[in-house]
Design goal:
The strands form three sheets. Strands 3, 4, 5, 6, 7, 14 and 15 form a seven-stranded mixed β-sheet that branches. Strands 10-9-8-11-12-13 form a six-stranded parallel β-sheet, sandwiched between helices. It has a two-stranded antiparallel ribbon with strand order 1-2. By secondary structure, it is of the alpha/beta class. It contains eleven helices and 15 strands. The chain has two domains: 202 residues, Alpha-Beta Complex (Quinone Oxidoreductase, Chain A, domain 1); 137 residues, NAD(P)-binding Rossmann-like Domain (Rossmann fold), CATH 3.40.50.720. Strand 14, helix 11 and strand 15 form a beta-alpha-beta unit. Helix content is 29%, strand content 23%. This is Zinc-dependent alcohol dehydrogenase family protein.
Length: 347
């Protein structure tokens, strides 16, 4: 099968014919319909993710059609269209039993710990515990984004920070996570301020319904947010994983505010010096979040199916597998608005 293989950090992916994946006894093999290109894939491409061993097939935001099932699979058959969270939990340990599958100690993460979906086909273990049926009306490119950016934002806003209608949300970073948070928060009924350093991306966020935008390249973002909100945001989302935006997000909150760290602090950003006096004096709550448990898919899908949120503005570019290298390299600089999704695996 055709795949884009990481053979050297910061090097173009090798478009190659590789062996077909073996079907796990508890899993399935999917023909990939679409796979997002995410900043987390960029961390792998740069060598910042310790789980990745070369050669490696990236890609963790995917949907596909079941081609083969293992003997222990009971819920899925050939021809089913499915999506999966990027964290595949065992479904049996105490963490999974308590509903916290994203903390499963034996989690499998395609695109990081296992071969990913920058390929025509992917093996997905633990299928009965993790796969969700793809709604017939949902375009594969959009469904692929649900595997990471949309689901992570949804869980961060609702499962961690408990964002409420009427509250102010400040989002630092207008990439895939940031745009997802904006669209979902608007559906909840929150008022959203988007923060970035790229005017084009802020204009795009404003066009998608942001109540206000702040250009951190020319403004003191926390001060601007306190001015807009009359005291600070109720909730802040950090969507980049760097110290500057994490500190600004903390400083943008009102007393008793809640912050969700969604951006992945990798490489040199894995250690940060934070203003703990702000945390202490503001009596803030700081949440880490990563992914979304599979059991929470119905709440998100029902929101989409009911027409309460249109996530199509997320998809800016539908590209071929051969374009993955250029899209990853683009994360070295402020990327253009929207996300890229691989929809053509033939070239």
């Amino acid at each position: 099968m055709r795949a884009a293989v990481l053979i050297g950090y910061r090097a173009p992916l090798d478009l190659a014919d590789v062996a077909e994946p073996d079907c796990p006894a508890d899993g399935v093999v999917l023909s990939v319909l679409a796979c997002g290109i995410c900043r987390s894939d960029w961390h792998s491409w740069t060598g910042a993710d310790p789980d990745v061993r070369l050669p490696h097939i990236p890609g963790h935001e995917y949907c596909g059609v079941v081609e083969e099932t293992g003997p222990r699979v009971t819920r899925w058959t050939r021809g089913d269209r499915v999506i999966a969270p990027f964290i595949l939990a065992c479904g049996q340990c105490p963490a999974c039993a308590s509903g916290n599958q994203t903390t499963c100690p034996t989690q499998v993460i395609p695109g990081f710990t296992h071969p990913g979906a920058f390929a025509e086909r992917i093996a997905v273990p633990r299928a009965d515990h993790n796969l969700t049926r793809l709604p017939e009306t949902m375009e594969p490119a959009l469904a692929a984004a649900l595997g990471c950016r949309v689901t992570t934002a949804w869980h961060g806003l609702t499962g961690r920070a408990a964002l409420q209608p009427g509250e102010w949300l400040a989002v630092f970073g207008t990439g895939g996570i940031g745009l997802s948070a904006l669209l979902l928060a608007k559906a909840i009924g929150a008022r959203v301020i988007m923060v970035d350093v790229v005017a084009e991306k802020l204009a795009h966020a404003a066009a998608q319904g942001a109540e206000a935008t702040v250009n951190a390249a020319t403004e003191d973002a926390p001060a601007a947010i306190r001015e807009i909100t009359g005291g600070g945001a109720d909730v802040a989302v950090e969507a980049l994983g760097i110290a500057e935006t994490t500190i600004s997000a903390m400083k943008s909150l009102r007393k008793l505010g809640r912050m969700v760290q969604i951006g992945m602090p990798a490489g040199t950003h894995s250690q940060m010096t934070l203003p703990m006096d702000v945390l202490y004096s503001g009596q803030l709550a700081l949440f880490g979040t990563r992914g979304m448990p599979a059991w929470r898919y119905p709440s998100l899908l029902s929101l989409i199916d009911a027409g309460r949120v249109d996530l199509t503005p997320l998809i800016a570019r539908r590209v071929a597998l051969s374009a993955a290298s250029a899209e990853l390299a683009a994360f070295d600089h402020p990327a253009p608005p929207g996300v890229a999704v691989i929809t053509d695996f033939t070239r």
